[in-house]
Design goal:
single chain, alpha/beta, Aspartate Aminotransferase, domain 2, Aspartate Aminotransferase, domain 1, seven-stranded mixed β-sheet, three-stranded antiparallel β-sheet, 41% helix
Length: 482
């Protein structure tokens, strides 16, 4: 202990010695004009400050987070501990490229997760470079775009999206140099086959791909999915699967079997890794075999002797999508979750669907649910009548939920439902929590009828009250001030 203490003191002295040779090379205009006046406070006060600061944020560890289409499930602490293992945390990324034989364990983690994702999705190869779901979308559309160019069909730049699509879909298409056409939904909330057929006929030489989520953002599994894929393929386009809602079908249905050619996954939405805060995230992209050569380089391959290494020789690769090898810690957490879940992966989806349908049946008693049939892991309720009769909106209900210890669901999306509340309980919520959600939401609806002005004023107890949204738009100020 004495030696360790002396080393610590020595390190501390070095850390506080700012008069080094390097600092002497800093030009005068970059030097501070005065010494920083830093406060000296006890450690316990510092801890109290940051703990109290953290309590101002709502998280899935504090209460229910029924954020539709985003699958805010609980993140197991075991996965977090494994990702912070020093054997994982302190690996230099250059080791993977220069001395792969020294980091076979790291490569094996990538490889094992890829094998499991291939099995779950029906894809033939994956890349883990994309740093988020939208980044995965961009990677997938780049692959599709280059596939058509290589095949001498540069004119194929049209990306179809349903009117219930995630907002990132059209944005991604535009960033990839494509243009977008919306496909309407039918009365059942599925893709309107007649409109799709007309578009495919009129634009057959322009179709690059159809970006589709299945189940869609209404929580509906499209009964015509195989026919849709066949129609798009016949027109020369590819099928792109937005994996945002994979949590509903994992272990029961595979995008590759439906007819999809490219899949992006959100590890935070399906495989128990953290969500939000701007990252780090991970949005791996899987492809069918005929698109393998278009993946970002490098990909991991296993040689006949069992050794894993990077393969940089993909003939049509779209290049690298990120520096180094993606957000590896997130990959570790996803694999840990899958290993812990094991054969219960199918039950994860079954419980998510069961929870959502139980919740939907209860919510239908006091709120309108425009698509009450065949929904899976999520459903969309509407406050349209509440707004019409009492002036209380979906936003007001969302703010009221926050004041009652429940995070608000997604609101005003999808756009095809007026005053939408998009609710997804996930499989990790207990029956007691679901009952609590129903009770709180029902009480808010009843309160809206008795005292609408009070409900319009929510929240009253959160650290930040309702902002003046009109003023925020009119007086936008995004300057950074020191």
């Amino acid at each position: 202990m004495g030696v360790e203490y002396e080393n610590f003191i020595e390190m501390k002295d070095i850390a506080l010695d700012f008069e080094t040779e390097e600092s002497g090379n800093i030009s005068e205009e970059l030097r501070a004009e005065r010494e920083w006046e830093l406060p000296y406070v006890p450690e316990n006060e510092v801890m109290r400050y940051f703990i109290n600061l953290s309590r101002k944020n709502f998280s899935v560890e504090i209460g229910m987070y029924p954020l539709g289409s985003c699958t805010m499930k609980y993140n197991p602490r075991l996965s977090e501990r494994l990702a912070f293992d020093s054997r994982i945390q302190y690996i230099h990324p250059l080791l993977l490229e220069l001395v792969a034989d020294r980091v076979q364990g790291i490569l094996r983690i990538f490889y094992e997760l890829e094998e499991r994702l291939k099995l779950i999705t029906g894809m033939d190869a994956f890349t883990f470079q994309p740093a988020a779901g939208a980044h995965g979308e961009l990677t997938g559309v780049f692959i599709i775009r280059k596939y058509h160019i290589i095949n001498g069909q540069n004119e194929r730049k049209l990306i179809l999206v349903p009117d219930s699509a995630h907002g990132t879909n059209p944005a991604t298409a535009a960033m990839a140099g494509c243009y977008v056409k919306e496909v309407k939904s039918d009365q059942d909330g599925c893709v309107d086959l007649k409109e799709l057929e007309k578009i495919l006929t009129d634009k057959s030489n322009e179709i690059a791909a159809f970006m589709l989520t299945n189940p869609n953002t209404l929580g509906i599994y499209d009964k015509n999915i195989e026919k849709i894929c066949a129609m798009v393929h016949e027109a020369g386009g590819l099928m792109y699967y937005d994996g945002a809602n994979l949590n509903a079908i994992m272990g029961r249905s595979r995008p590759g079997d439906m007819g999809f050619d490219v899949v992006h996954l959100n590890l935070h939405k399906t495989f128990g890794t953290p969500h939000g805060g701007g990252g780090p995230g991970s949005g791996p992209v899987g492809v069918k075999e005929f698109l393998r050569e278009f993946l970002p380089v490098p990909v991991i391959v296993e040689r006949t002797n069992g050794v894993l290494e990077f393969d940089w020789n993909l003939k049509y690769s779209v290049g690298k999508m990120i520096g180094w090898w993606g957000n590896f810690a997130v990959v570790v957490k996803a694999l840990a979750w899958l290993l812990a879940t094991g054969k219960e992966v199918k039950k994860v989806s079954e419980d998510a669907v069961l929870n959502a349908n139980w919740l939907k049946k209860k919510v239908m008693e006091f709120l309108d649910v425009p698509y009450p049939h065949n929904t899976m892991h999520e459903f969309v309720a509407s406050a349209k009548e509440l707004k019409k009769d009492y002036g209380v909106t979906a936003l007001d209900l969302a703010k009221g939920l926050l004041d009652n210890g429940i995070h608000a669901p997604t609101i005003y999306f999808p756009l095809i439902v007026s005053e939408a509340l998009m609710i997804e309980p996930t499989e990790t919520e207990t029956l007691a929590r679901l009952e609590e959600f129903v009770e709180v939401l029902k009480n808010l609806v009843e309160e809206a009828k008795r005292d609408p002005e009070k409900v319009k004023g929510y929240p009253y107890n959160t650290p930040v009250s309702r902002p003046d949204e009109v003023r925020a738009v009119k007086e936008l100020d995004v300057k950074w001030e020191v």
